[in-house]
Amino acid sequence: MNLTLADSVRLAEELQRLIGAHPERDVAVFPSFVSVAAVAKTLAATRIHTGGQDCAAQEDGAFTGAVSASMLRSTGASMVILGHSERRHVFGESDATVAAKLVRALAAGLSPILCVGETQSERDAGQTSSVVLRQLHAALDAVTRDDLPRLTIAYEPVWAIGTGRTATPAQAQEVHALLRSALRERVGALAEDLRILYGGSVKGSNIDTLMREIDIDGALVGGAALQADDFARIVGFKTT
After folding, report:
1. Active site residue 137
2. What is the pTM of this model?
3. In terms of Cα–Cα distance, which of 161, 207, 227 is closest to 3?
4. Residue 90, domain member (yes or no)
5. pLDDT exceeds cutoff 90 at 165
6. What is the CA radius of gyration of the chain?
């Protein structure tokens, strides 16, 4: 919940200028609902995708304040974030709710980023594996194999969201490898093509080491995405 409409458009314009030097990188931005249409229009002629931060589990009806996947798609958005830790832990979304949203997003033609991740207390209790696998399978059970090529997974440890703490590359890789293995068990070789992003206080100073890990395919960036120069540095990560 950052940036006004004007600020969002201005940031999109700055990113358009700065990120053009990296045509080999896939980039998407996720402004608040009130700015999605304007940002999508600003970036329409670029390779930068626009998405929403959430969508409703219902298609339409008496759900004041909610935004359906088809409404989001009509603004020019092509992607959506689902199951973000703040949606799960601040707004109380269950695995079943996230799964229902995933079904709606795919039906509307959106490409979802499905977020999974454990809290500090769950990590301390040795429950990281069980939590992230429960969240992953609850969502995948709701969709078909044919849906999976449009899906991206994001591991975002709740204890590293907005705290300044970041999972070490080794910690992140361990969970990414776990998720990749679970995907292999479900869909075989297709698992190698599915992207698994890391999210959790990602910034220019740690992106290079994170991206050197074999199962980390990209980043779900939070606060650092609010500054064009910082975000451009992340997009331009170096692995050598």
Report:
1. no
2. 0.96
3. 227
4. yes
5. no
6. 17
Number of H helices and E strands in the chain, helices first, is: 10, 7
Q: Is residue 82 within 8 Å of residue 54, measured between CB atoms?
A: yes
- Residue 163 clears pLDDT 80, i.e. is over it: no
Domain holding 165, by residue range, is 52-215
Is 43 domain-assigned? no
* Residue from 2, 107, 99, 103 nearest 116 by CA: 99
Q: Which amino acid is at 95?
A: D
From the candidates 22, 24, 122, 156, give the one annotated as an active-site residue.
Answer: 156
Choosing from 13, 24, 59, 84, which is the catalytic residue?
84
CATH number of the domain enclosing 182:
3.20.20.70
Is residue 239 classed as helix, strand or coil in its secondary structure? coil
Q: Count the domains in the chain.
A: 1
Question: What would the two tokens of residue 169 be?
Answer: 């590359």
Annotation says 89 is catalytic:
no
pLDDT 10s digits, 175-185: 999 999 999 99
Is 231 within a domain? no
pLDDT tens-digit map of 126-150 = 999 999 999 999 999 999 999 999 9
